[in-house]
């Protein structure tokens, strides 16, 4: 399962898409380079044409309407280790998946 990264119009940040073809809700996890002090984050590595960079993913699954889903980032991807970290988090905390 390769995670796809989209722009979230509501939060104005890139987000990792988790939901499949559900037409009513879009489940995503917000990404940022500068995390706040109060929220918990997963540290991951993103890969682009300029190289790799350290990014933080918030440990919260947002359930937005599909209108919040913006353009897909085609030039940004996740490292294999980063995908495994996100999958392991989802298996631990969200057992319905």
What does it look like?
- By secondary structure, the protein is mostly beta strands.
- Helix content is 14%, strand content 43%.
- The protein is built from one helix and eight strands, in the order E-E-E-E-E-E-E-E-H.
- It has one helix at residues 80-93; strands spanning 4-8, 13-17, 26-32, 41-48, 51-58, 62-64, 69-72, 77-78.
- Strands 1, 2, 3, 4, 5, 6, 7 and 8 form an eight-stranded antiparallel beta sheet that branches.
- A hairpin with a 2-residue loop joins strand 4 (41-48) and strand 5.
- It starts with a strand and ends with a helix.
- The mean pLDDT is 87.
Number of strand segments: 8
Largest sheet composition: 8 strands, antiparallel
Radius of gyration: 13 Å
Shape: globular
Q: How much β-strand is present in the residues?
A: 35-45%
Question: Are there runs of 5+ residues with pLDDT below 50, and where?
Answer: none
- Could you give the order of the helices and strands? EEEEEEEEH
Put simply, the count of helices is: 1
Helix and strand composition category: mainly beta
Fraction in helix: 10-25%
What's the rounded overall pLDDT mean? Answer: 87
**Oligomer class:** single chain
**How far is the N terminus from the C terminus?**
13 Å
